[in-house]
Amino acid sequence: MAKDNGMSQRHPTQNDCVMFVTTNVARRLPLFADPACAREAVETLYRVQAMYPFFLFGFVIMPDHCHLLLKVPPPAEISSIIGSYKRAVSHNLVRGPIWQPRFHMKIPGDCYAALRYIHLNSVRAKLTENPEEYLWSSASGRWDVQSLEGP
Question: Which residue among 6, 53, 89, 142 is buried most deeply as judged by most CB within 10 Å?
């Protein structure tokens, strides 16, 4: 049996639709409560996007997990992008493997509701009173994301 390197995942849908992705830190450790680690997680997202172009509609980097709302145009695949992201964040933080082996992906019925859910994560976790206050989220307005009206 082949060893699972923690980066592969089988998803029947790999591209060309809006996807809501969640990936968790191993043992749900609050690694991204450290602002330097959270910043690196955001900046790595954009570096991966430059290498494997995809449309990023929204994200939040929570202390122990990340949510992304994105669309991957063919021929790229979501599993390759998330695998590259997870490897790069681990490498850049020089911490070894930091992620749970898999990620969760679903096709949202309502993309706007999915984006609201992502942006309200910091409020539900009592990290901020308003989504715009949380620096490690696209709700802050500090990060470049696509409009859902776009592609």
Answer: 89
